Amino acid sequence: MTAQPAAPLSAPLEISFDYTRSLGPVLSQFMTGLAQRTILGSRSADGRVYAPPAEYDPVTFSPPADLVPVGPAGTVLTWSWQPEPREGQPLGRPFAWALIRLDGADTAMLHAVDAGSASQMSTGMRVQPRWAANPAGHITDIECFEPAGAESATGASGRAAGGQDAAVPGAENDAVTMMTTPVRLHYQHSASAEESRYLRALREGKLIGQRCPACGKVYIPPRGACPVDGVPTTTDVELPDTGIVTTFCVVNVPFQGQRVPSPYVAASVLLDGADIAFQHLVLGCEPAEVRMGMRVRAVWKPPGEWGTTSENISHFEPTGEPDAPYDSYARHL
Amino acid sequence: MRDAAVIGFAEAPNVRSTDGTTNGVEMLVPIFREVFEQTGLTKSDIGFWCSGSSDYLAGRAFSFVSAVDAIGAFPPVMESHVEMDGAFALYEAWVKVLTGEADIALAYGFGKSSAGDLRRVLALQLDPYVMAPLWPDSVALAALQARLGLDQGLWTERGMAEVAVRSRAAAMSNSRAQLAGQVTADELLAGPFLADPLRAHDCAPVTDGAAVVIIAAADRARELCARPAWISGFEHRIDSGQLGARDLTRSASAASAFAAAGPGAIDVAELHAPFTHQELILRGALGLADEVRVSPSGGALAGNPMFAAGLARIGHAARQIISGAAGRVLGHATSGPALQQNLVCVMEAR
User: Fold this and answer.
1) What is the Cα–Cα distance from A331 to A325, expressed in whole angstroms?
2) Residue B113 phi, psi dihedral angles, 5° rounding
3) Distances from the Cα of A62 to the Cαs of A46, A56, A65, A325, B86, in angstroms?
4) Which terminus of chain A is more solvent-facing, meaning fewer CB atoms within 10 Å of its CB: N or C?
5) How many inter-chain contacts (A to B, CB under 8 Å) are there?
6) Average pLDDT over residues A164-174
7) Rounded CA gap, B106 and B32, in Å?
8) How many angstroms separate the CA atoms of B213 and B195, rounded?
9) Where are the beta strands (DSSP E) in A191-289?
10) How far is CA A153 from CA A39, A128, A156, in A?
């Protein structure tokens, strides 16, 4: 009996970035209106009012004739219940999603309704917006909607009742032309079974490649599919930590997150016995001394710092041996 | 222009989660092997490859490039990608065959839906100005659509549960399905709401999976397959991205896609309906008669691998022709919130 192979390695991965978007003429007016606690809809040539506004009428494809105030109160056309709010949603407690037709509009807007419980929701109910304390020209300036007649959480009920308020920030004719939406996503990122084999060996200070059963090429890291044959690599091949520079570049431009002061060399390193080069740093000499065919050796971090990561190798440095002849690595370029 | 037909189909087991990578190779390598065994082809016979997948689903940029390793793409191949369901990749492959740029083409789709929080990830397919910044939950949006029909008396919670009952019973004959079994509507209706008015049985499960379909031009199709599934119409249409500006209880785009693809009597319709009420909407939009067998594979409710489930519907529909069980079939794929985009592929025996 062979031991059950260990499950592939995986780790949490968070991706976050800001989407910064220009708004264009129609949405710019809409967002500028929100900053002033006013909701605008777009009136099409046929008289239909879209709220939120349509940049182009989805039926006639024409830009709107003009933008007109709608609401701010409206009617719930349909709703659903969100018992466990998710990250980024308008409210941190259970709430309803609803399509809300604002007074004076012919279409409906998606937003949250802070109703307390599903039993307080009904199709046809009247709702009013609750404004964020500091509107900035973003759809989240409407914090949520609430049942009509509720004491607005932001106080000053005159605001929620509509109309412009000169004291509101952003009301000084500053057109909102851009909007920024932060995006944050969470994943559990998995390495392949073959990559996991490689990463676990690295923790022991070993370099394990694998051979493709079809073409015989040795890949390091090993792969879930040989890019020539489309089959997983299989047989383990332990490789030395010496090899050659096949090609390289000198990095002169500083960039965000840079760990090594420039200028430095990023090189394709082909380990002795491998058929595929990987990228690593070449330090320990002047960048001008690095050349194609130069023999290099891995410089490992202290064993106490090793993990399941390629970073166990700090960098490569020249061995001082004679360069490899060009013909010996030409097919790897 | 010449004709083309589906001659092969395979799909990975539909499962809640795999421990494979998000580039899909672990799911793709075995089904490429399976579809090549089915057709007697090898990778060198494929003149054009096209994939459907999503970087947002994978949580990494250019995830489809790593998937190309599963092809064995050296020497270089003619290859393309759509950030959509593999059904839309098949459309591109079909155009390549019709225009004579390839005689045999392969489309595949894959999705490791379990890698992230699918119900949040799908918010990024929405309008980026007035909807996506609110991070709407994908199940909640479908629930808004379901309630509209319930309120208007167009369907009932029991009718929705019966869709799930039929799906799970049908899936008992599909070894790759995720959810299958004999249940009753009463049992299902006793369950709690997931997103009122939707219960868990109304919603497709979160599924990891992949699918592959091979099509061939007329002469090659006859050589390679005793009963090819000839594509007689292939159309896709889209409704407005403004969720509140269209009638969500109907599917105008599905209806117009089918009208353009060649309506008429069909024996089997494989529908990509990730929610029970959406199957009811599609039955109406496509005008399916009562005797039409709907989703004998179990459909998306029995397994909904993102970016592969639509292609799998076309594959399952084609299999009905290839096996001799049907004479004219329809495969459907959807994308976007509340059936926003719809693709219809009509296939027939000749």
Assistant:
1) 12
2) -65, -20
3) 10, 5, 8, 67, 33
4) N
5) 188
6) 50
7) 10
8) 35
9) 207-211, 218-219, 235-239, 242-251, 264-271, 278-282
10) 19, 12, 9
Instruction: Residue B248: list chain A partners with CB under 8 A.
Output: 78
B11 alpha-carbon distance from chain centroid: 11
* Polymer length in residues for chain B: 350
Question: Which residue of chain B comes nearest to A108, CA vs CA?
Answer: B244
**What is the Cα–Cα distance from A153 to B36, expressed in whole angstroms?**
64
Non-local CB neighbours of A286 within 8 Å, separated by 6+ positions: none
Per-residue tokens: B346:
């009509």
The pLDDT of residue B7 is above 50: yes
Higher pLDDT, A149 or B20: B20
CA separation for the pair B88, B234 (Å, rounded): 10
Residues of A in contact with B60 (CB under 8 A): 189
Mean pLDDT confidence for A282-290: 94
Q: Which residue of A has its CA nearest to B240?
A: A58
Q: Does residue A192 contact residue B24 with C-beta atoms inside 8 Å?
A: no
Phi then psi for B107, rounded to 5 degrees? -115, 140
Is B327 within 8 Å of B348 (Cβ atoms)? Answer: yes
pLDDT, one tens digit per residue, over B277-319 is 999 999 999 999 999 999 999 999 999 999 999 999 999 999 9
Q: What tokens appear for A54 in the block?
A: 């349509």
pLDDT at A156 over 50: no
Helices (H), chain A: 24-35, 157-160, 193-203
- pLDDT-based confidence at residue A153 (cuts at 50, 70, 90): low
- B102, two tokens: 């390839």
**Which ranges constitute the DSSP H helices of chain B?**
25-39, 55-58, 63-67, 86-98, 118-121, 138-151, 157-170, 185-189, 218-224, 252-261, 276-285, 309-322
- pLDDT, residue A333, reads 84
**What is the value of ipTM here, to two decimals?**
0.95
Cα dist. B316→A229, B113, B213, B269, B295 in Å?
28, 21, 10, 9, 8
Distance linking the first and last C-alpha atoms of chain B:
17
**B26 contacts chain A (CB < 8 A):** yes
Q: Which amino acid is at A71?
A: G
Verify whether the Cβ–Cβ distance B71 to A230 is below 8 Å: yes
Q: In whole angstroms, what is the distance from residue B167 CA to residue B203 CA?
A: 12
Q: Tell me the two tokens of residue A110.
A: 């998606």
Please tell me chain B's helix, strand, coil percentages from 3-state DSSP, rounded to the nearest 5: 40, 20, 35
d(CA B52, CA B82): 5
Place of tokens 């990023």: A266
Q: How far apart are CA B183 and CA B200, in angstroms?
A: 13
Q: How far apart are CA A32 and CA A14, in angstroms?
A: 32
Beta-carbon-side half-sphere exposure of residue A14 (alpha carbons within 13 Å) = 4
From chain B, pick out residues whose CB is under 8 angstroms from the CB of A79. 144, 147
Which residue type sits at B41? Answer: L
Q: Do B129 and A139 touch (CB under 8 A)?
A: yes
Any chain A CB within 8 A of the CB of B119?
yes
From the centroid of its chain, how far is CA A23? 21
Residue A88 to residue B20, Cβ atoms within 8 A: no
* Dihedral sign (CA B176, B272, B261, B81): negative
User: Quick check: A139 and B133 CB within 8 A?
Assistant: yes
Contact call for residues B40 and B9 (beta carbons, < 8 A): no
- Reference B309, options B213, B225, B233; nearest CA is B213
